[in-house]
Structures are given as structure tokens and as C-alpha cells.
Amino acid sequence: MRQVPVIWLIWPILLTLGLFFFALLRFADTSLLHQIPGTAMFEGPRSLVNYTETFASPLARRALWTTLVMSLQITALTIVMGYPLAYLMARSPSRLLRNAVFFTLIVTFLSGGITRAYAWMLVLGTTGPVNALLQALGADPLRLVNNRLGVVISIVHFVLPFFVLTLMGAIRNIPAALEEAARSHGATRWAAFRTVTLPLSVPGLVSAALLAFTLAISSFLFPLLLGGGRVQMFANLIYDKIQSSFDMPAAAAMAVIFLVFALLPILALSVIRGSLSRRFGGTRR
Amino acid sequence: MKARPYSMLVPAWAALVLLFLVVPTVVIIYSALSPSSRIAFPPQAITLKWFGNFFGHPQFRDALVNTLLVTALVTPVSLAIAVPTALAMVRRRFPGRGLLSALALSPLAVPGVVIGVAFLNFFSWTGLYTGFWKISLALVVITLPFAIRAIVATLEGADLALEEAARNLGAGRFRTFLTITLPQLRPGMLAGGIFVFVEAIDNFSTVVFLTDMQTNVLSVQAYSYIRDFNDPTVSAMATILILQSVVLVVLLQRFAGFDKIFAGR
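Predict the joint structure of the above. Result:
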């Protein structure tokens, strides 16, 4: 069968990717320059001074640390909250239940970041329903916004649908018959899950957790709205740099450092993925 | 009797998690309909004035128009690039195919703020100053992975034999594409199109660097409004977006099926 040459199919994506990577390279180059004081322009000679200044700045170091710690906390919470839900969706015999959970997840997922960030401001705010409930029960109101807690809660909510939908696919690809076989040979429900399904789901769990971490580390809108200026995640620091001084070279250096931290887990994963699938067996392909 | 595959603790925990997922949606709709900016329970009255405020507010109206124009451009362009890319990735063997697949999805892994500042820097160097084009171009790059992923998933399940049969029966290449391949791609294009559309409306972290005095979009306008005012106008906007996503989910289920879209990814 004669076919059109591949290049006819892929030139649009090559063009788009070319633009994207050119913009990123240009940006990396900008990070080596320095701002002409009092203007939005920049000039050479090229040096690493923006990088050394970023690493020397206590503010930037603290923001980087905060971002990493919060992203790990968010990933851990997402796993604890999301795994049972993904397992239920993959294994439940009830189609109605599966579709109801699907519906909830996808509506949440599609209703967008702004919607959810504002919703959490209302829910967790000092006059919001959570504090109203606490007061009605005679408890003291809690500070749930303008601090880390509010930011973590809202990001977990944002990340959960992505995590659950990714993990569910992986669990569904593990034959339920394996767990049933363990049960029929006398394993308890928990033992069957722990020794059969859980280990087989590890590769899928790692991908889903990595997605959660990547989404958490890039969050910008949630700390901006729910942090009340008190929670500086790294993305917000870059935004502030542009807003306050329009120092593009300094912002570029911070962005490059940030990008490396955001990509590290993905690179690490591709290295360990081989050993993982040898140990646990791939869930697919 | 067949035992349940899990203990009842799992559904109980899952129910709590679902409650956590739903609460914000319920509260925001509730607040959009309540007359004061303080959330009171039980409700005193129901009002639509915040919706009136949203559509009557000149900045929100401009932002809505711009957002609609941007999505009207970005959605078809993103799909038009994604369809041939997905075809090449699934159906063809060529040198660099694996690399292309990885690179095509790479914008997903780059934080939105980094893409935003990088494009801001790039556009000021190229001298492109029209907000509409800057935003649209950045959004095409950002949304492409969503479209490609959805279409690749559909293509992997499509039957190649149908196309061969059509060609063997004498249909031309173009006719085969139109009558066999494209209909097979429809669920993936629908799902991909919906993800692109939603991301194009919702994106904040990249677009906030590219808006200007003339061109604002909904997400950025909502942020400035939240910062400056304390009333449920943004709740009204959010309620409209939630209703829209309910409609899209029904479409998705009706014409593509959840199970197919989110099967083993």
C-alpha cells in the first residue's frame, strides 16, 4: 500500500516543537545575561551570576525547600486518598457505582483550576462552612487559609482526579483472577491484596504518583490565592520577580533551576523503571 | 455466593474522598445563588444577581469574548496538528519515532510558569505584541499533548484491516481517510478536543504572563476580581464553568465512553 511520506504528517508538530524548544533555549541564553539597571532590557557578557545569586538568596532557597517538601506531602496524601478510590473503580462489579465515580472525577477535573481555587477560599475561609460547622459544635475556628494547610488541601483536590484516573487504568490491567486465586487458596482479603495486587500495581502507582508530584511542584495559582502571600512556592517567586522588577535574566535563571527540579523525578523514574518492571513485572506492554 | 473483592472499609473511605471532591463544587454553586457574600445556612433567598453582574461587568464581558475567540482558534488548530502526528506515531515506522513521541508530550512536564516566562521572553524578542496571538500560540503548544494522547489511545484500538479493505476495493487514499480513518478517530478527537478546550479556557499560569491591557482572558480576569472584590461574581462564573463541564462529560460518555478514554493509559 503506497502511503504519503511521513514528513507530510509530522511537519506541523515539528514546527510547533521547534518553536517551543527555540523559546526555551533562547530563555536559557537570557539567563546568562544581566539586566541593564532601570530598564527591561538586558545585555552580556554571559556569566553564571544569576545562578549563583539565586542559590545564595535565602528567600529562593527557602522557597525551593518549601516547594519540594509540600510537593512530597501532597503526593503522599494523594496516594493515601486516591489508591482506594482507584482500586474501587477498577474492581467494583457495579457499573452504576463506577460511572458515578467517573462522573464526579471528570466533572471536578474539567471544572478548572480557578473554579476550584476560589471554591476552596470559600470553603476554608474564616466565614466558610467548615468554620461555621466548628463554631456550631462549640469548637474554636481554625485558620485554614493564608497558610500552608489551605494550599496543600486545594492542591490535593486538584491532583486527585489525575492520579485516580491514571492509577485506575493500571489496576484494571491486573487480572482480578489472580487475587481470586489467592483467596480461593485461603488467603484473607487483605493478604490477597497485599501480596498480589499491590505489588503488581507498583509500576502504575509510581507513574501516577510521579504525575501527582509533577502537578504539585508546578502549582502556582493555588499558593497565589490560598497562600495569602505567606506561602512562597517556587513558581510564585518567579512570578514576583517578573512583577516587581521585570528582571528577565534573573527570572530565567530561577526558571531553569526550577525546571531541573521539576524534571529530576521523571529522569530518575526512567532510570529505575527498568529495575522496577524486572522486580514486579510490567502491568502492560 | 461470590465474595466482594474488597472489604467494606474501601467503599467507606472512597465515599469520604468523594465527599472531599464534591464539597467545593456544592459550596460554589450555593454561594453563586445566595444574596450576600457571606455564606449563610439555611439559605435566606435565591438570587441570580451575581450572574447578571458577571455578564454585565465590562471587563468580564471582554475577557469572555477573548477567551471564546482564543478557544475557537486553539481547539481546531491543536486537533489539526495532533491528528497527523498521532497517525505517524501509531501507524508508521520511521527513524526518531520514539524521540518524537517523547518530545511531543514534553510540554506536559514543564511547569506552566516556566512556559509563560519563556514565551514572554521569546515574544518580546520577536516583537510580537498582540496579546491574542501570543496567548493562542502558547496555548497550542500547551494543549497539543492532551490532543495527541487522546487520539493515539483511540488509534491504538482502531482496526487497520478496515482501511486495507477499503484500499483493496479501490478507494483512493483521500477517500479512505475520510470514510474509514476519520470516523474511527472520532471518539479520540472528541475527547482530545474537550481536553484542549477546557485547558484553553482554564489555563492561568502561562497566560497570566501574556495578557495585556487590550487582551484579557477569563482566568486572569477572575484572579484580578478575586483580589480586588469580595462578592460571589466569580462563583457565578465558576457555576457556568461547572455546568459546561457537566455538559461536556455527558457528551464524552455518550459519544466516546469513559471506559475507552481512560482505559490503560
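Chain B has a mean pLDDT of 88.
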